[in-house]
Amino acid sequence: MAVASSSPGSLWLSLTGAVRGWRHEALRSLIFLGTAAILGFFVLYPLGILFKRSLYDYTAQAWTLSNYRIFFSDPELLAAFWTTLKLAFGTSIFSLIVALPMAWGVSRTDMPFRGFIRSMVVLTFATPSFLGAIGWIILLGPRAGRLNKLFMWIFSTDIPLFNIFSFAGMTFVMGLFVYPFLFFSVASALDNMDPSYEQSARILGSSNFRVMRTVTLPIVTPAILSGLILVILESFVVFGAPAIVGNPVHVQTLSTQVYTLFSEDPPQFHMAATAATPIVIVTALLLIFQRLYLGRKQYVTVTGKSPQPQLVDIGKWKYALCAYAFGIVFVSILLPMSALFESSILRTWGLPLSFNNLSFEHYVHLFSTSDVVVRAFWNSFRLATGAALVCIGFTFVMAWIVERTNVPGKEGLALLSMIGMAFPGVALGVALVLAFAGGPFPLYGTLWLFLVGYFVKGAPIAFMFARASLKQVHEELEQSSRALGAHWAKTMKDVTLPLMKKALLSVGTIIFCLKFRDMATSIMLYTGGLEVISILIFEYVEEAEMGTLGALTFLVFCINLTLIGLSRKLVGKGAFEM
Amino acid sequence: MSDLVINELTKAFGETIAVNDLCLKFEEGEAVVLLGPSGCGKTTLLKLIAGFLQPDNGHIAIGDDIISTPHEVIPPDRRQMSMVFQSYAIWPHKTVFQNVAYGLEVRKINKSDIKKRVMNALSMVQLDGLEGRYSTELSGGQQQRVAVARAIVVEPSLLLLDEPLSNLDANLRIEMRSELSDLHKRLGITFVYVTHDQAEAMVLGDRIVLMNYGRMVQEGTPEVFYQTPKNRFAASFIGTSNIFSGKLENGSSGGTIRVRTDFGPITVAKQVENAASSADEVYFCVRPEWVKFHTEAPGTDINVYKVRILKRQYYGKYIQYTVDLKGKEIIVEATDEWDIPLEAEVNLEFPPERCVCLENN
After folding, report:
1. Partner-chain contact A486 B102, CB within 8 Å
2. Is A3 on the interface with B (CB under 8 A)?
3. Chain B residue with Cα closest to A24
4. Which tens digits make up the pLDDT trace of B5-59?
5. Which of A55, A513, A566, B108 makes a 20 to 30 Å CA pair with A309?
């Protein structure tokens, strides 16, 4: 029976009890508008300012396209644009080669260590790529890199094996950290594929290989495209790794170029806005394409496993495939993280790993030399906590309005809460600074603006989780509480929130984790004294104190690891595969 | 609590009119069953009564107090009603005791009274000793009992039940419906019970309200429903019916009318409230067990027709035959003294007082 969730009036009923007459309508509208206004203000206002800044000449007081003319004639900006496209292309090819065999092996074959490989890919996915970049600098720095030195020693040469400070190095590091997007997309499609598709092709006489080519591959093609879009997207928006690897040799992507324009003296605000705008537009278009045409798989957590499909016996090949997967996992996460760890415990960096050269002094040094490290940890901790709490509280109310009422315009509210997703970190940073430096809301130069940025970026994830979790709570569980005499707020407190506790805690952990290490937005908002951890890391990279840098980055990696473990414990596997 | 009155109530969801201009009255202490196929508006009506939905037109009142209008709805938590939900809605994070105690806690009853009343309610639904369990540790039938206990422990004046037995297996359903019927008699409160199961409606309802397309089709006691269905929908929804159509013939006399059908003329009782209109087409129904079997020539020739047995199904208490009545297949039932082989021919008598004339809609 088509009983709608609730009547248009039930929101005010729920929230006000028995207030009578027109005040119901007014209060309902007030809450609805209030929610929309807060969200709209912090999402749409900076976005509008960003666009305006790129299209409006403040000295001439006129709309103009001159910024874009400069953008397309400035060789440096054009180079950044091409580098970004090349990076997107390179990481896509890299991901296809790496992720497809791995995903197939893990999901559909009898390859050994499938669970371990999956966990390692999750770990790679949840580790910020700038940690990987630093690890690879330690390993493949042109002169002092561990592997390069080994190579030069073995072959008695002074030509390094590979210089990580290059476009190729950037593509390599990025590829190792973005392939999980494709991996999860394809693996989850394969996991959920009805095994009878393959079985019916087998029974009709197809070989394993033929089944894969004619049945499996076509079925997962949308998932491949969808994963590739996320890979491309990440190449456009990522900041940390390209900046760390590319800056020393002036190889810039659009994102790092925006930062350069922003931190020049004097800052090129209008050009930063102009360079950020294409990133926003590309992101939005790709996301819209991905969601409309390729389904919503990417944004659905893989919670339960569907009935285990019949695994394909690939004979001896399974060892080859397993070795391949181990190799990838080793190179993408184990090796660079070990490099961080090694440099954090070596008393003198550059000397070999020996008992005499071991020490934890870098960890002590990290916290004892200046209070900036403690301050950065404290700032990151409270900002990440605040962002998690604000996101949960805010999106819970929004999800309730969207799922449980028929308030007109609620779909708009849902859309509004997702816009943050199309707002890459760097572009968001620029937009926030432009919108909140001076003017009626001078938040720039305070930690509050960091909180706003983290909120805008965290809200879409929190909203998706809250909405999905609220859908799981049968409406009648709430109604039975109402029918027994509990008002709305009591019902939320006694029934709805306890039932959503796990989901909310887990999304809180995820947001905490993402914001604890956020670099792209934070680097734009940073002014002296407002250090957060990622900014500290960024500065330490430039100052090149390898031991301290190793200690700091390995510590961050460990915190990250703990949080991932925690959220996977809370919500089961798949929490991070959003 | 006084009578519950529903007046010109209308509720639409987009294009679909779920409840259409409905007027009803529920008397205090009565057990009323809202019966109808899925999508007929019965659950919507229940949620309107509970206050979860706001009507588009009309109003709901308890005695003189209006509780729902298109402009104003007293919220469910202030209606002193209780409800048993189709999904049971047992809170999985609370024990059986905590579930049942919740309504009492909301009413700020003191702890020792809560304990006494919860235990009493649990024993009333035969769940003694299970108060520490969680819903995941209960069977479907036990969950259903928890839902009932939770609803009655607050001593509501009106209990709403939304298809409470539809998720149970057949045997348990039969057991629970008689328990619910006993419970109603013990508590003496008004029950409004939604179901699509006509057997449940017959057992539980003091009165049945049959709905279709958001409108009331017929209301009355189970006996009235079975003996004199109002129209073709009512006749086929409750019990099994053979429905015939024909043309009205002149020469009706007394309490009967003559109808010319494909298989010959037939005399049909003309119920006062079901009076056939002057329209040409006349419908009437005959329940399968209302026909009489004759192997010999019967003593009367009114409404006697020769039929051929097409199909025989043995049910123990009775045998159901599908027979061919001059090209039309009808279903009849007889006790096993009439064990007739397939393809045999037999005389069937349709007593005129058992041919119920239907409204032509």
Report:
1. yes
2. yes
3. B72
4. 999 999 998 889 999 999 999 999 999 999 999 889 999 999 999 998 889 999 9
5. A566
**B73 with A7: Cβ contact below 8 A:** yes
Contacts of A489 in chain B (CB under 8 A): none
Of B72, B93, B150, the CB nearest to A20: B72
Q: Which of the four pLDDT bands, split at 50, 70 and 90, describes residue A305? A: very low
Sketch the domain layout of chain A as residue ranges.
Answer: 24-64+360-578, 72-99+117-313
pLDDT for position A24: 47
Listed in sequence order, the DSSP H helices in A346-370 are 361-368
B278 φ, ψ (degrees, to nearest 5)? -80, 0
The full set of domains in chain B, from first to last, is 4-232 (3.40.50.300), 240-358 (2.40.50.100)
For residue A497, give the chain B residue with the closest CA. B93
For chain A, the C-alpha Rg in angstroms (whole number) is 25
What Cα–Cα distance (Å) separates residue B139 from each residue in A137, B143, B149, B181?
61, 6, 15, 21
Which residues from B are below 8 Å from A when comparing CB atoms? 13, 16, 18, 38-44, 47, 50-54, 71-83, 85-87, 89, 91-93, 102-103, 106-107, 147, 150-151, 154, 160
pLDDT band at A277, cuts 50/70/90? confident
Architecture of domain A72-99+117-313: Orthogonal Bundle (1.10)
Which residues in chain A are contacts of B103 at CB distance < 8 A?
484-485
Instruction: Judge: B102–A3 Cβ closer than 8 Å, yes or no.
Output: no
DSSP A356: G
Asked whether the beta carbons of A163 and A142 are under 8 A apart, the reply is yes
Percentage of the residues of chain A whose pLDDT score is greater than 70: 89
Does the pLDDT value for residue B271 go beyond 70? no
Whether B177 and B171 have beta carbons less than 8 Å apart is answered as: no
| A13 with B73: Cβ contact below 8 A | yes
- A24-64+360-578 falls under which CATH superfamily? MetI-like (1.10.3720.10)
Mean pLDDT of chain B: 88
**Could B76 and A477 be called an inter-chain contact, meaning their C-beta atoms sit closer than 8 Å?**
no
Chain centroid, CA A206 distance in Å: 41
The per-residue pLDDT for A578 is 44
Q: pLDDT tens for residues B196-207?
A: 998 899 999 999
